[in-house]
Protein: HTH lysR-type domain-containing protein
Amino acid sequence: MNRLLALQKIIETGSFTQAAAALGYTQSSISQAIVSLEQEFQVQLLNRSRSGVSLTPAGAKLYPAFQRLLQTYNDTQVLANRINGLETGTVRIGATNSLSRYWLPDLIKGFETEHPHVHFTLYQGDFDEIRTDIRTGKVDYGFLKPSYTSGLTTKFLKNEQYVAIVERAHPLATKQTITLSELKAGSQNIILIPEGSHQEVLAAFAGAGVDPEIKDQIQDDYTVMAMVAAGLGVSVISKLMVDSDAFPIQPIALDPPIIHPIELAYRPHATLSLASQHFLQYMLAQRQQLR
Structure:
């Protein structure tokens, strides 16, 4: 291919000297490449004169075919680079505790069975932090609620449901469903995460005409569950966080339910790596299997 590239550059510049300079070769090596090409095809390709270089009649007939060969080679290189990018790329994701713990492991495991050399970097945070990470390019994409996606490109993934949690010895623990009014009446302390993760929860309390009179605000879901388990209050958190026996707490379905959509968000026109593009499509294809 180097010989064809040398020929192309000579035709473009009209000079062996300029072609050599453009390609970073010596003039001697450029001349040898053309001689070798002419010997292989047993035809003179170029006319050399004081006025410059031009194609011979035979060269003019062959040159379009040489150009097609070069284009095919370049296209093949692009494809190979894309394949290598998919096989060895890195996917950077921003997610909350609940989503990174319960959705991402199965998604990553399934994707890695097909692409074992793709690497993942996970940045955990609240929705404000994830939005900032997307906008600054720290992550390729992140999981956000619609109220945080202004100015970003989004694709709907799945709805996330919230439940009330109480300690297992709490009088409310036997209830199958509970209203926010009942939850407030049954506890002296409602513990919530202070940031935007509970924006919909606070809106639901307001919609029900209930002042939660929040005493404790905790940044971390696990600390919230630990405090509830210790009998320090009740809370409302993502159902995903309580699908285990890590804490002695009792989840109770809310009536009416609090549900909000989770979207995959990324910057408009962002240039995602091939690995990130494929994992994005994989997540969307697998969303019905998410718990």
Notes: The radius of gyration is 31 Å. The mean pLDDT is 86. The longest strand covers residues 249-266. Residues 57-88 form the longest helix (32 residues).
